[in-house]
Amino acid sequence: MTIALGRWEALITIPSSTSITVTNSGGGPTVVSLTPGDYFLTSAGGYSSLLAHIQARLIAVRPPASGTWVVSMSTGTSGTGQVTINCTSGTWSIDWTTSTFGPSLRDLLGFAANLVGVSGAQTGPAQAKGVWFPNCTLNLDGHPLMAPKLTDRRASESPTGYTTTLVGTMKIKHRNLRYTLVPEDRFREASAVLANASWEKFLDDTQLRQGSNLFKPGAPVQIYMGYGGTEQLVGKDGQSGNGVPGWNLNMNELSTVMARRDNDTTALWRIDVAELTAYIPD
């Protein structure tokens, strides 16, 4: 099925002691540890890709006798948000349960169990956590690729017309982001075709920390949208084409409006986010 280009990704925090145990044609079982830190699933805003990091660690620590490891996520106009892992030669195994945060990593990537004696590409049965595909067009006030600056600028004008201006702090802000035709399966988890695919689940995991301990409450997000026939980051102009460090949903209470399109159907929903803010890196 073709979908509208666009997705959200939330910032993932990988703690120390996150590892998996791996066996392949090159040997094993071998413990493969991840580097603690903050990642998006795909790189943006100065943060590395978690999927690329997992791939690099597998290649470095448990290389197969021939071939290589590939870790990827389905995105784009037919994207499902599912993660695929492949060791391109022989049989291989991954045991997620050998460290404190291994099972959390398994759930984050959309897998349900250990991968034992498999061959070829293996795709998680659920969508990855911390990613959301709205499957409709994004709208917001202003140009979506800009990173509009908001300052605390204050000016004082003297009786003779002389003006003194002071500027202290600065941030980036977009207002009135909205999706007006979100399908029910992308809005309500009980209706989702794939587990973790709904806006409801995305908020629970990444903003309320109700479903995963790999997200901080109110995790910053990257927002991708279709623009000019390609996938672009909202605020792309902010960091040399690589996006702002991450947008924050500017809400003390999670009161995002979710209203039915009309009184006769629950099939299409409108989602409004009043403000998105980001800091300007030094």
Layout of helices and strands, plus pairs?
Elements: E1 6-10, E2 12-14, E3 19-24, E4 27-33, E5 37-40, E6 48-49, H1 50-61, E7 69-73, E8 83-87, E9 91-95, H2 102-108, E10 115-119, E11 122-123, E12 131-132, E13 138-139, E14 149-151, E15 154-157, E16 163-166, E17 170-183, H3 199-206, E18 221-227, E19 230-233, E20 248-249, E21 257-262, E22 265-279
Parallel strand pairs: 5-6
Antiparallel strand pairs: 1-12, 1-18, 2-5, 3-4, 3-9, 7-8, 8-11, 9-10, 13-17, 14-17, 15-16, 17-22, 18-19, 20-22, 21-22
Task: Write a compact overview of the structure shown.
The chain has 282 residues and is mainly beta. Helices cover 10% and strands 40% of the residues. Strands 13, 14, 17, 20, 21 and 22 form a six-stranded antiparallel sheet that branches. Strands 12-1-18-19 form a four-stranded antiparallel sheet, with helices on one face.
Write up this protein:
The structure is a single chain. The protein is mainly beta. The protein has 2 domains: 6-131, no CATH class; 134-205 and 239-279, no CATH class. The protein is 10% helix and 40% strand. The protein contains 3 helices and 22 strands. It has helices at residues 50-61, 102-108, 199-206; strands at residues 6-10, 12-14, 19-24, 27-33, 37-40, 48-49, 69-73, 83-87, 91-95, 115-119, 122-123, 131-132, 138-139, 149-151, 154-157, 163-166, 170-183, 221-227, 230-233, 248-249, 257-262, 265-279. The strands form 6 sheets. Strands 13, 14, 17, 20, 21 and 22 form a 6-stranded antiparallel sheet that branches. The longest helix has 12 residues, at 50-61. It is globular, with a radius of gyration of 21 Å. The two termini are 42 Å apart.
